[in-house]
């Protein structure tokens, strides 16, 4: 059974954080840049050689080479012409991949979008590149099936793997690359991204999963595009079951456009566990103080840090949080950060000697633009217009927002007018919905419990003992 997005993010994200993850990028990642699918790329050669419709693209390429004078050179020239006019500017998906702390990246794509997004990465295109062991860089991109040049005029840096014969001889003609891929597969958690079962390169995943089934090692994952109905859908389900039996977790998407939002969430999941506390006590100070205190004590059971712009609502949560940590000998000043904007006035004193004060020299807007993208979630208590701005910034950045309605103000308005899916994400669970309802309970302790549960799940934190 395909796995939900949250499980994929939780499990694969843990491997990324431990720097024990590999990523395999397929053709679906380059579609947004304007690159063609296999079928589109080979449509003209198919027509020229009068080859009937077929789904095996490498075999189609093989027939074209056999039937056409100068077939191999003509095929490579055609592909080069089709790809050379497309912009080499990395897409949002490639930029997000570059944000991830993944040292081992593989691709079957000919384009140079990954290299452009990660200019400091070592790029392996030829077999002999793997013999250069004294290169001082941690991140490596391995291009399995050939590559274009980055420089213009664009040409082949490494000739493409494209015909059925190329695929069948690959292991023999590229022994170092294949051995390196097998070694990574046996020692790291892989995510195969941008593939479908109509992509011939899916054979790499199938072969690895079947031949190394009994070796053991980390669990691997793939994100696959699901077909729309008919026999293809039934065949897809059988193939998914085949992968699952081989230890591959499958997450399904309806369209390749879903890859970017998924990567955005993976980037968020692999940030440091930082919770932004937003709000003020203007409309209901006693409720903010009481609920904030209870939430702060509960959050101390979780492995996270707090950040805020040092307002009353953040104090209401942060100081009880710090006191609970001190009581359990787990306090450190970097667990709580209070950010202060640029000002010519004397810096304000914190109400208590706890946490770290950060005097940035920035405007409020600049502080938010820097701090919010570092956070995994936002907790909202009370608040007015500025809190509303912070909530909107978080939503634009795809950061989950947890409003506490019983604290009044912006928190109550957001809770009442915005859906749980829009605030937490589309993959909400029954547990999420239960805790969402409990956020509005009349008993503060129930509210605090629900808030801490939602913080834990949206931030992918381990449950407390």
Write structural notes for this entry.
The chain is elongated. By secondary structure, the chain is of the alpha/beta class. The two termini are 30 Å apart. Strand 11, helix 15 (312-327) and strand 12 (336-340) form a beta-alpha-beta unit. The strands form three sheets. A seven-stranded parallel sheet has the order 3-4-2-1-7-8-9. Strands 13-12-11-10-14-15 form a six-stranded parallel sheet, sandwiched between helices. A two-stranded antiparallel ribbon has the order 5-6. The model has no long low-confidence stretch (mean pLDDT 91). The protein has two domains: 5-35 and 86-268, Rossmann fold (3-Layer(aba) Sandwich), CATH 3.40.50.1220; 272-458, Rossmann fold (3-Layer(aba) Sandwich). The chain contains 21 helices and 15 strands. Helix 1 (5-17) packs across helix 13, helix 14 runs parallel beside helix 15 (312-327) and helix 20 packs antiparallel against helix 21 (444-458). 45% of the residues lie in helices and 15% in strands.
